[in-house]
């Protein structure tokens, strides 16, 4: 009989014995240990028997876990269906085209930009329109099974039989935002940029929402994120640049221009040489290998490169090292042997490059031992000599930690800052604080616009 290791952990005595046994200690004889294990298992089995309640008793416990939302008692599905039927009478042959779907979405009590997912889920993509019967059959099923917005949204977007959404499932919705949002009129004419914008928004959604890094967003992840609020806001906010979380055109423009500058041959891939030019080589080269290597492990070094989607993750992580995803991103890059902790060897590996760069700039670097002391003071890891992801998230200074090890410019910036001035800033600023990423994107956008204007003047004059 197998017993789970979690149950073993609940018995401290046994754990100690196990540990001793593992170290080959003579104090615990195998026969004695086996006896002990058997006694422990018996206790476990007995406890389990007590857990099993008779069926009658089980039924009296009210259900409290609703993965697809808690059903609303007084929600009248038939009344909603009647309203939809009525709305369809206005359309020719009681069939809704894509243009009619905004109205249908509102009748269904959905945000306006759910219109294309609604259209596609009812089969409209294939035939170009949706009949009242097909639409009602689809929507009734969703209303009966999904009781909150996250699970409805997921059901509309996901492939049949899937309990998650993947990147490509978002394409129709975001392409529709490009086609119809008043804040993107100018982008509509530049069809060659549509896929770039769509890719950027999808990557940003996965960056923020897909906390499990699986490439599959679940309804729980949607619920925990601000995705649906942002999609709902598209309807109210004409200036798309206000939606800095995912949809901002300015943010897209900055990311894309940065990529374009590095991708000199414009084959939509950048290699290590290209990446070395980012921020005039603020990033040391070991880290650059890691960024590129982590994605293309199996390829020989020379062929390794990253595409645009990976670049979106890199740039956002690089410019804002305070978010959960960013901390995880850099942790993964630094954990060279993939054992889930950062060893002192791994820290030294990256710091060596940093020292070389500092020496080139005629700045004398701190010896590694001193730097290590500072870093350990900053992070205060639970286990000596090992830094875990949890330690880094808890210390609230992960950005300083990472920059010290592999970003010269930002490391020097942190060094020069008076720690008290940062605190003062926090107290004095009113209104919502900008994130590091938002601040970077706003500055870069201004620079790019100024550059463009200067170019125009040059060409005209
Ligand atoms: Ca290239
Ligand atoms: Ca490691």
Automatic annotation (TrEMBL):
Gene Ontology molecular-function annotations: calcium ion binding; protein phosphatase regulator activity
Keyword Calcium found: yes
Keyword Transmembrane helix: no
InterPro entries on file: EF-hand-dom_pair, EF-hand_13, EF_Hand_1_Ca_BS, EF_hand_dom, P2R3A_B_D_EF-hand
Transmembrane feature ranges: none
GO cellular component: protein phosphatase type 2A complex
Gene3D superfamilies linked: 1.10.238.220, 1.10.238.230, EF-hand (1.10.238.10)
Stretches assigned to the EF-hand domain: 322-357
Superkingdom of this protein's organism: Eukaryota
Role this protein plays: The B regulatory subunit might modulate substrate selectivity and catalytic activity, and might also direct the localization of the catalytic enzyme to a particular subcellular compartment.
Listed name of the protein: Serine/threonine-protein phosphatase 2A regulatory subunit B'' subunit beta-like
Source species of the chain: Callorhinchus milii
């Amino acid at each position: 009989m197998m017993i789970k290791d979690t149950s073993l952990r609940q018995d401290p005595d046994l754990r100690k014995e196990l540990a001793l046994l593992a170290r080959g200690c003579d104090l615990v004889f195998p026969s004695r240990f086996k006896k002990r294990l058997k006694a422990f298992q018996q206790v476990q089995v007995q406890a389990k028997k007590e857990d099993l309640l008779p069926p009658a008793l089980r039924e009296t416990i009210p259900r409290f876990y609703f993965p697809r939302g808690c059903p609303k008692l007084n929600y009248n599905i038939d009344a909603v269906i009647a309203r939809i039927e009525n709305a369809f009478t206005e359309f020719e042959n009681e069939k809704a085209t894509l243009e009619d779907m905004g109205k249908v979405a509102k009748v269904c009590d959905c945000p306006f930009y759910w219109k294309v997912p609604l259209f596609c889920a009812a089969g409209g993509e294939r035939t170009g329109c949706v009949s009242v019967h097909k639409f009602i059959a689809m929507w009734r099923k969703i209303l009966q099974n999904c009781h909150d917005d996250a699970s409805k949204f997921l059901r509309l977007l996901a492939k049949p039989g899937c309990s998650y959404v993947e990147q490509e499932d978002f394409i129709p919705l975001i392409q529709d935002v490009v086609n119809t949002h008043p804040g993107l009129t100018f982008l509509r004419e530049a069809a060659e940029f549509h896929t770039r914008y769509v890719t950027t928004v999808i990557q940003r959604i996965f960056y923020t929402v897909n906390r499990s890094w699986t490439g599959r967003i679940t309804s729980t992840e949607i619920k925990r994120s601000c995705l649906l609020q942002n999609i709902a806001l598209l309807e109210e906010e004409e200036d798309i640049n206000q939606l800095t979380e995912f949809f901002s055109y300015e943010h897209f423009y900055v990311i894309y221009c940065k990529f374009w500058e590095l991708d000199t041959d414009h084959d939509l891939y950048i290699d290590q040489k290209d990446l070395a030019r980012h921020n005039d080589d603020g990033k040391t080269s070991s880290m650059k290998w890691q960024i590129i290597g982590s994605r293309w492990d199996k390829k020989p070094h020379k062929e390794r490169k990253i595409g645009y989607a990976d670049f979106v993750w890199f740039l956002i992580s690089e410019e804002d090292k305070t978010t959960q995803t960013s901390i995880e991103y850099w942790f993964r890059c630094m954990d060279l042997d993939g054992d889930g902790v950062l060893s002192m060897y791994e820290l030294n590996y990256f710091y060596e490059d940093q020292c070389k760069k500092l020496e080139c700039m005629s700045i004398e670097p701190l010896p590694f031992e001193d730097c290590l002391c500072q870093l350990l003071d900053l992070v205060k890891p639970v286990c000596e000599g090992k830094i875990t992801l949890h330690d880094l998230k808890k210390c609230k200074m992960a950005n300083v930690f990472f920059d010290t090890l592999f970003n010269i410019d930002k490391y020097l910036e942190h060094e020069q800052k008076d720690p008290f001035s940062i605190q003062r800033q926090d107290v004095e600023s009113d209104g919502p604080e900008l994130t590091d990423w938002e601040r970077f994107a706003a500055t870069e956008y201004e620079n790019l616009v100024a550059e463009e204007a200067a170019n125009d003047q040059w060409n005209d004059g």
